[in-house]
């Protein structure tokens, strides 16, 4: 049984601009800045996530989450089969298998929902002590371009499972009143296990629930870090370098089909900003089995590839 915890994401109305200005990100010596397209501000939730024994998170906890919608012949409405994360004003980071024609069959990635919470509604509302509070409509973006890692699927099942989606619009985070926010990429020299310690990262998405249906509501789960040896035992040659072994230590707590491409995030010990440490890649089915971890792409290992493949 999957024990996801529902979160409410009710962002303010974002503004969309037609231009973007690269920020300066310092790599190496501070006197040698390297201009990249990474945002100067990132990983800041609209509201803090204070999950206690399964209590739902407040609104705006994961404003970088993106829902990937696919269309196919004979169906007018998109189906949401993957997720991703906003990393700057033009790009969403996801898994390469979410763009793989061999995986998609007749499906085509057609829309990206940004700032969404309930995929079945145009506006998301919650009841408060002061009455009903509703968010502005979410953004529906199109796809301008995609790029998958050239080594995807060459070293084993879903190796190098990372891809970029370029949006057909430009998001202006400064004018959006934190309606949507980019997540931070791990810095140079990032060591996931040293950073995490004994803490569990957080996965979010709209994947399968214990009832066998995809959720319309954004879900979240804390997934403990597993030993790499367990993933090597379970997945043999398909667990290669540049991957994280996550979950499988507590039955029912895992990501599942429909969460693919979604972000695995965590903060430093003192709190935000949030860093995207992983991308949901593959795992057992049925999901949430004890001692069957999920496999996530290690984002830190692909930082340079991500930066080098973005353009203004």
TrEMBL record:
Residues of the Peptidase S1 domain: 51-311
Database matches in InterPro entries: Peptidase_S1_PA, Peptidase_S1_PA_chymotrypsin, Peptidase_S1A, Ser/Thr_Proteases_Immune/Dev, Trypsin_dom, TRYPSIN_HIS, TRYPSIN_SER
Key words, A-Z: Calcium, Disulfide bond, Glycoprotein, Hydrolase, Metal-binding, Protease, Serine protease, Signal
A biological process term (GO) from this entry: protein maturation
SMART domains named among the record's database cross-references: Tryp_SPc (SM00020)
Origin superkingdom: Eukaryota
Gene Ontology MF: a single term: metal ion binding
Family according to the record: Belongs to the peptidase S1 family. CLIP subfamily.
Protein name per the record: Serine protease 55
Organism from which the protein derives: Armadillidium nasatum
